[in-house]
Amino acid sequence: MTLRRVIARAAGAMLAAAALALSGCGSDGVSASRDVDVRDWPAVEKAARGQTVRWYMWGGSRAINAFVDRTYAPVLKERYDITLARVPVADTVDAVNQVLSEKQAGADPGAVDLIWINGENFASLRQADMLRTGWSRSLPNARLVDWDDPAVANDFGVPVGGAESPWAAAQFQFIRDPSRTRAEDLPRSYADLRQWACANPGRVTYVAPGPGGFIGTRFVKGALYELSGGADQWARFDRATWDRHAPALWAYLRELAPCLWREGATYPRDENQLHGLFANREVDLSMTQATAGPATLVAEGTIPKGSAAFVFTANMIGDYSYVAIPRNAPSPAAALVTANVILDPFLQAAQARPESGFGLGFAINPARVTDGAARQALRRAAASRGPGATPVADLARSRAPESDPRYQDLIEQGWRRNVVGAR
Questions:
Q1: For a Cys-Cys bond, which of 2, 186, 197, 216 suits 207, CB 3.0-4.6 Å?
Q2: Antiparallel, parallel or unpaired: β 316-324 and 399-400
Q3: Quick check: 260 and 328 in contact, CB under 8 A?
């Protein structure tokens, strides 16, 4: 565990202990006064009135932060008299450590009502039994979610199990500047990328995998898929499979490194830094997960006008992000209402539009929406992706599922040891 995480956990434990001293705790660890039944939705809405929902979420995107504040906060206040307190964290693991520290201290209520979460962070809290379960499919708007889709019902291969509700869909993509790179010259696989990078030394790099560099982890994982023959074998954890294929992954990345920006001596810490290198023409490719394309980044002036997204022919990892409610949430009723609000078709349409700053895909199935105006809003949002967006057919053909979350640390720690440490 890094020093930053140790400090965060220790601080969380002290805060949690203080909270415990001020609050009672039921025999099951959940205060009876906060024991709401999602099946009685009018009672949930009544209990939520006047509450504050403390939503812990990655705060690294100014555009996403602004969208949450200007879109969800007014709706929650005007419709339900709920105050949204967005709590930005540098990495979702910081919110996870807060909840785990509260568990260790026996704090109920805790500090966190809602977390933007997926992957290994979700798996950690499920394993610790620190998430409310059995609620997500009972939300009024849950009927709009295609729970039969394995990509929705499983988070990094872990069954959602009613413990989280989807917010948006994302998929890994590259960004190019057509004034610098022609479509016909683009790499369309990781093998092509190595050839392309070495033919154009210093003109490409990727984000360092790890905390804050999730998109870099996803890039490396896609390479693992290609080198090992596909994604299917990574859906369930098997150490022998990892041990068999990991050496080829590290060899590929070591061979790629001398052809990268600064010869692989250093890597961008996050996608914002990579966008900056791309905008300054230090590299010719950037990365995104926005299915709406790079229009938001262009509108902000973050990357050049005319920038366009593209994908390889396979192994472009896509998944859903979710919201989850800790078992010791201080305002679970407000958290339930918030989770339901973000599935509202009009708000799903708003978050999918490039100008939202979010630009991710729908968490709901538009075919399940019966209201005519709402369906029209979803159609307009889908049509607003812009000329720089990856064609929907290309996204679908190239999409690959996420792997078991237990591979995450192996990839991130192994990269630091076998790629960076091998220099």
A1: 216
A2: parallel
A3: no
